[in-house]
Specification:
signal; BNR repeat protein; 5-stranded antiparallel beta sheet; about 500 residues; mainly beta; Sialidase_sf
């Protein structure tokens, strides 16, 4: 653990709160299963690869940025993943994955994928980041990651694997994109979506930063270019992950599409949601055209529409309330879910809405993403309470479930960044919500790994830009998230049943 870069943590261990409904609620709450500790000791702590000039030690045993997926052909089977041994300046020694065959009661670690040098992968990849898992409609599982050489915007790749049921292991990963970082080209923030309507189909997407023409003007011209862009990239498999298509950009324009994630509608339409962080000419980045947007494809990703604007976005810096130390977590990074019966689309993110405090908001479309209502604040902590690290999913019956972090229970001046995880659900398309419930915590966010831009420039306390939330079957869901411990971070799973 890089203890020299940690904030002082409170010595007391914070107790777990039992799941309860909000006062005055009349509807039945979720029945919560046990809070299951998924992650265990790291096997990578002795790995000599991945150190940078500024940081020689990783956060040993810190599992952050979790995701989870449920097998639609066998809902008792789920796979979760996270970063393993986070580096202070970005990425991790490896990506870990776990499987359950009993509906989330017990989890077993799967053999490592050779993403990085620490996990038996190419030595040019000292680190790896951005884990994401998914299943397609036929029950094939996929796992994607982003191998990198270091936290600097140098060598970066997009690598994906699928699960081999004959061996009970992941297949050797396929690198579908690799760039050496020259002239500002880099890959970032990957996700993967199995198609519930087309067995064997899955879609990978990420952002690829570059200048027009891949920076082939001249180093001087590139440096002064006002058209740096973040292209939303796309690759697909149609054979269960055995082969992947040549990556293409969904959109070529002077815009920067961050947090790309694809969801599939009941008619097979693909929806890619992303935060467009700047648009247009002039010195970049600028604040022109900053909005949450969605693109559509009606042919499984071969062609994409122009982005439809969901809403303008404005975001404030997330901070620990006691001392203003930054928190690096999911704010403008969106999550998307589709009702597979009605076709309604839901997108959530954290937005300041012109204030100084980010709160989780929701927008909804009932016409295939062409028009949107909202954004409406759906976090319930109150106007001055930060909420973030949101996740949303829609069940088989149309129940919408939402999870998020907030700091409503923080006590100023006690030296503890008190944070809790909350869950809400709606049975009428978010026209109203059933009782809010406390899911996990309180935990001390000060104990989280710290993300650093440089040794004296903190980016913030880091547990990840997202957490996992998936329907199991009916109205039962699994929440998959990272919480702090005395000196690090662990992955937890809680099953929520509606009977």
């Amino acid at each position: 653990m890089h203890k020299s870069s940690r904030l002082a943590a409170a010595a007391a261990v914070v107790p777990l709160i039992v799941l309860t409904a909000a006062p005055g609620a009349s509807a039945a709450p979720f029945a919560a299963g046990p809070d299951v500790l998924v992650s265990g000791p790291s096997a990578l702590t002795a790995c000599p690869f991945g150190a940078s000039a500024d940081f020689a030690e990783a956060y040993d045993g810190a599992e952050v940025e979790p995701q989870v997926a449920v097998n639609p052909t066998d809902p008792d089977e789920m796979i979760g993943a996270s970063q393993q041994d986070r580096w202070p300046d970005g990425g991790a020694r490896g990506l870990s994955s776990w499987i359950t065959h009993d509906g989330g009661a017990n989890w077993a670690k799967l053999p490592d994928v050779p993403w990085s040098a620490c996990q038996g992968g190419p030595t040019r990849f000292g680190r790896v980041t951005d884990p994401w898992v998914t299943y397609d409609g036929g029950g094939t599982a996929y796992f994607i990651g982003q191998p990198i050489d270091s936290a600097a915007l140098g060598l970066s790749a997009i690598s994906v694997t699928s699960f081999d049921r004959a061996t009970g292991t992941w297949r050797p990963p396929t690198i579908i994109q690799e760039d050496d970082g020259s002239r500002g080209v880099f890959n970032d923030k990957v996700s993967i979506t199995g198609d519930p309507t087309r067995p064997g189909y899955a879609y990978a997407t990420w952002i690829r930063g570059s200048y027009p023409n891949e920076g082939q003007q001249s180093p001087s011209a590139d440096l002064h270019s006002a058209a740096y862009r973040g292209k939303p990239m796309f690759s697909r498999t149609t054979d269960g992950g055995l082969t992947w298509s040549t990556p293409v950009s969904m959109r070529d324009s002077n815009a920067y599409f961050q947090g790309n994630q694809i969801a599939v509608g009941p008619d097979g339409t693909l929806y890619n949601v992303a935060a467009n962080l700047f648009t247009g000419a002039g010195i970049q980045p600028n604040d022109k055209g900053v909005y949450m947007g969605v693109m559509r494809s009606t042919d499984a990703g071969l062609h994409w529409s122009a982005p439809t604007k969901i809403a303008p976005i404005s975001f404030a810096q997330l901070v620990a309330p006691d001392n203003g130390f930054p928190i690096r977590a999911g704010d403008y990074i969106p999550d998307i879910a589709v009702d597979m019966t009605s076709g309604a689309i839901y997108v959530v993110w954290a937005d300041a809405l012109g204030t100084s405090v980010n709160r989780v908001v929701l927008a909804k479309s009932t016409d295939g993403g062409r028009h949107w209502t909202g954004p409406t604040v759906v976090a319930t902590g109150g106007p001055g309470v930060q909420s973030y690290n949101h996740a949303i999913d829609v069940s088989d019956t149309g129940m919408v479930t939402l999870t998020y972090f907030d700091d409503r229970n923080n006590v100023l001046g006690d030296g503890i960044a008190t944070t809790d995880v909350w869950v809400r659900h709606s049975h009428d398309g978010t026209a109203s919500w059933d009782p809010e419930q406390h899911l996990h915590g309180p935990f001390d966010h000060y104990r989280a790994p710290i993300s650093w831009a440089a040794p004296d420039v903190p980016r913030g306390l880091f547990l990840g830009d997202y957490m996992g939330l998936e329907t199991i079957s009916g109205d039962d869901v699994i929440a998959f998230f990272t919480s702090t411990i005395a000196d690090g971070a662990d992955v937890h799973a809680v099953r929520l049943d509606q009977g």
